[in-house]
Amino acid sequence: MNRDDENNERLLQEGLAFDQQIDERIAHGHIPDLRRTKPCDYFYNNSWRRPGYVQLDFYEQFTLIRDAISAGMSRKPQEIRVLEVGCGPGYLSLELARAGFQVTGLDLSERCIQIASKFADEDPWISERGILRYIAGDYYTCDRLDIGSYDVVVFLGALHHFQDQSKVLQRSRDLLKTGGLIVAHEPARDRITRGNAAFAHLLSTILSLNNNFYTEQALLARRSELLDKVENVFSALRYENDSGEKTQSINDNDAGYAEMYPELRSTFEQIRFEWRYSFFHEFIGGLRFDEEKNLQVAEFLKEMDRILVETEVLQGTEFFFVGRKEVKL
Ligand SMILES: C[S@@+](CC[C@H](N)C(=O)[O-])C[C@H]1O[C@@H](n2cnc3c(N)ncnc32)[C@H](O)[C@@H]1O
């Protein structure tokens, strides 16, 4: 197989993995809409499990992105063209359109785009919305994206699926108008440390003592067993299985912070950078207190997470970057 064939094969696999994932999720009652989502027990440890977690997690990401766009562009949302790359089933694009922006959501997965389009068509807020369209295709080769025509390019949990960061960011730069923004909210699994893993094991063990967590953890006390356990958690958190293989899709974790950040900085003028959270995203869907207590604990964990990252006790494992395609003089 030559390199082009190999790339095409990988893209095919990548798209199919997300086709399959979304089909399974939808079949089990998932509603990829931040305003209309419902409790969904199919998710055993994911924020989509309960609307309250969706608010804490994904809705906050949306407000962060919306506010960063508004702060970086001195125009009304209706005059701002946003491209979301790797939009999956489209919930962020939908919410940005509801905030008034003109939005294009692009994804490799045809099923994701069909589902995104269906939810957009059924949107009760359709009449108040900005223009919204979805496109199925590969970011590099899709010919329905016009060069120099976007004010903002957004990646939410998608940039780390691109192996060649120089190429994907150059493509984004080409698609942006001069003065346009790139916004990226990405996991940085290469930042997960054994300390983060030890903390995660401590927390899950304590929570599970009274069956308040989705998994049961044996109360290991021997140092060697604990070290092995921490090693397993470390791999799982990095989305690898025990053999170090990727588990979500073929291109998952193609780029870590070490690859993404230097290219973001060299391709765009940095306006904002921050570490967000370390562990709460991986935890709150797994809580098994009663419904009211679950939400209280989720809020507590989220705030503690922030503090632990700010005080550098834990390493942040997701970052938020805003950059600008600088104005030519
Ligand atoms: C981890 S998912 C994130 C989906 C969504 N942004 C979210 O946060 O739920 C990564 C997405 O990137 C898409 N993707 C990967 N490579 C792509 C490419 N070359 N062109 C367009 N989309 C791509 C995948 O199909 C997948 O839906």
Automatic annotation (TrEMBL):
Family annotation (Pfam families): Methyltransf_23 (PF13489)
Annotated signal peptide: none
GO biological process, one term: methylation
Keywords: Methyltransferase, S-adenosyl-L-methionine, Transferase
Keyword Signal: no
Molecular-function annotations in GO: methyltransferase activity
EC number, UniProt record: 2.1.-.-
Superkingdom to which the source organism belongs: Bacteria
Enzyme class, spelled out: transferase
Protein name: Class I SAM-dependent methyltransferase
Natural source organism: Noviherbaspirillum album
